Amino acid sequence: MTSTDTAADGVASFPAAGERACTIQTTVNGVRVERALDPRMTLVEFLREDLELTGTKVSCGLQVCGVCTVLVDDQPVSSCTYLAADVDGRAVRTVEGLAREGALNGLQRSFAEEFALQCGFCTPGFLMMATALLERDPDPTEETIREYLDGNFCRCTGYQPIVAAVRRAAARKAGEAGGEPS
Questions:
Q1: Vertex 19: Cα angle to 13 and 20 (nearest 5)
Q2: Beta strands in the chain (DSSP E)
Q3: Phi–psi pair at 65, nearest 5 degrees
Q4: Helices (H), the chain
Q5: N or C: which end of the chain has fewer CB within 10 A?
Q6: Does the CA dihedral 132-136-138-140 come out positive or negative?
Q7: Whole-number Cα distances in Å, 28 to 35, 72, 73, 95, 121
Q8: Domain boundaries, the chain
Q9: String of b and e for 37-57 (b: at least 16 CB within 10 Å)?
C-alpha cells in the first residue's frame, strides 16, 4: 500500500514527508515551471530548495516579520506559510525577478542610494512589499508607505531610510514617465 492509499480502517493516509504527491505548473519570474512536490511544502521551501532562488529568506516562519514576502499574482504573500501547491496556475515574483539583464531596477537602486539596508536579511521582503505598493500606488505618501510596510521588520537600518528609498523610487519612476518627480 502506498502512503496515499486508504488504510484498512478506511482512513485515507497522507503522503510521507518528502514524498512528491502533486504536480504544479506555475510561472516564476517570467519562467514557466512544472514540478512534482510534497503538498505540504511551503512556497519558500519550493523557491529556495527546488528552484534554488535563495533571495527569499526565512525568519519567523509564522507570517509576522515580512522577510519571506513574494508576490503571487501581484499580491504580497508570506511564503513561509503559503503552500507551494497553491501557486499552481499562478505567477510568482521573487526578489531575483526585479533586476533586468543584470541591472538593478529603480527601487533596488533607491535602496542602495538611501542606505536602506545594512545586513540585508530583511531587504528582499521590503523590496517585494514596496514593489506591490508602487504598482498599486505610484505616488504614495510617507504615511501610506509606512502603513504598507508596517508588517516588515528591520533590526539594523531603522525605517526612515527604507521609507526614503520608496519615495525616491516613486519620484524616479515619475521622472522616467515624463512627469514631475514628487
A1: 110
A2: 22-28, 31-37, 69-72, 75-78, 91-93
A3: -105, -20
A4: 43-45, 106-113, 123-136, 142-148, 160-176
A5: N
A6: negative
A7: 12, 9, 10, 11, 21
A8: 22-97, 106-176
A9: bbebbbbbbbbbeebebebbb
Question: Would the pLDDT of 24 be above 80?
Answer: yes
In this structure, whether the domain defined by 22-97 belongs to CATH 3.30.565.10 is answered with: no
> Residues 155, 106, 101, 32: is their CA dihedral positive or negative?
positive
Count of residues making up the chain: 182
Cell of 169: 523610487
For residue 145, the model assigns a pLDDT of: 98
Write down the pTM of the prediction: 0.85
Lookup: cell for 50: 527546488
Digit-coded pLDDT (tens) for 96-152: 999 999 999 999 999 999 999 999 999 999 999 999 999 999 999 999 999 999 999
Residue 15 has pLDDT above 70, yes or no: no
Contacts of the segment 157-163: beta carbons below 8 A, 24+ positions apart: 157/115, 157/116, 157/117, 157/118, 161/114, 161/115, 161/116, 162/111, 162/114, 162/116, 162/126, 162/130
